[in-house]
Amino acid sequence: MQGQLRKNRTISLRLSEHEFEALKSLYVAHGARSISDFVRSAMNRIISENSHDSRPLELKVQEMDGKLTILDGEVARLTRLLKGRYDQEN
Known about the structure:
Blueprint: H1 17-29, H2 35-52, H3 54-89
Helix pairs in contact: 1-2
C-alpha cells in the first residue's frame, strides 16, 4: 500500500442503461479491472490535465476572445456592404 493513497471516500451516481452498458464495454477495452477503476483513471486524467494546463486554457480563451472580436468586426463590415448594395438596388 506504500505509494498509494488510501481510498476512503465514496461517490455514487445514477446512469441510464445505455450509459452503464457503454461503461461495461469500455472498461475492458481500456484494460481496467473494473468500471470503478476505469472511471477513477478517467477522472484522475481529467484532474491532472486541468491542474497542469490552467495557464494554456486561459491563453486559449483569450485567443478565442480575440478571434470572436475579429469575427464580429467582419460580420459588421459584411452587413454594411450588403446593406449598401441593397440600398443601391432600391
